[in-house]
Amino acid sequence: MRDFPCTNCGKCCELAGEVIANKDLYDPLTLSLIEKFPYKIREDGSCEMLVDGLCSVYSDRPLLCNIKAMAKLKEIPLEDYYRQAAKSCNKLIEKFGLSDEYLVKF
């Protein structure tokens, strides 16, 4: 299976504080991973590992940030989880008025 076609917009990392703050939106597994999130959230709501618009720990990122690992943990077929993630990504991209080049095509 191919990797998720992330376009590196960085919005998920910029909004880490918002994700963590909205705990009532998540299932128990996701909540447990949020509670174990190992990095600090900056005052602007971004993850401290976001450097120059990219994740500085991408190859060793937390499970919560790993789409392929989350699909496996949740026992959701990878293609289905990728579709769900792509929809969420594209909503963020549109909400923040980013160029269409950042839209996730899946």
Describe the structure in your own words.
With 106 residues, the protein is mainly alpha-helical. It has one domain. Helices cover 42% and strands 4% of the residues. It is built from five helices and two strands. The chain has a two-stranded antiparallel sheet. A hairpin with a 2-residue loop joins β1 and β2. α4 packs across α5. The chain is globular and about 30 Å long. The relative contact order is 0.21. The model has no long low-confidence stretch (mean pLDDT 92).
Report the average pLDDT across residues: 92
Taking pLDDT < 50 over at least 5 consecutive residues as the criterion, the unreliable ranges are none
Query: Biggest sheet: strands, sense, closure?
Result: 2 strands, antiparallel
Tell me the distance between the termini.
13 Å
**Bulk shape:** globular
State the helical fraction: 40-55%
Strand percentage lies at under 5%
Q: Strands of the largest sheet, in order across it?
A: 1-2
Order of helices and strands: HHHEEHH
Total discrete domains: 1
Set out the fold topology.
Elements: H1 11-14, H2 16-21, H3 28-35, E1 50-51, E2 54-55, H4 67-74, H5 78-95
Antiparallel strand pairs: 1-2
Keywords for this entry:
single chain, 106 residues, mainly alpha, two-stranded antiparallel sheet, 5 helices
Short description:
The protein has 106 residues and is mainly alpha-helical. Helix content is 42%, strand content 4%.
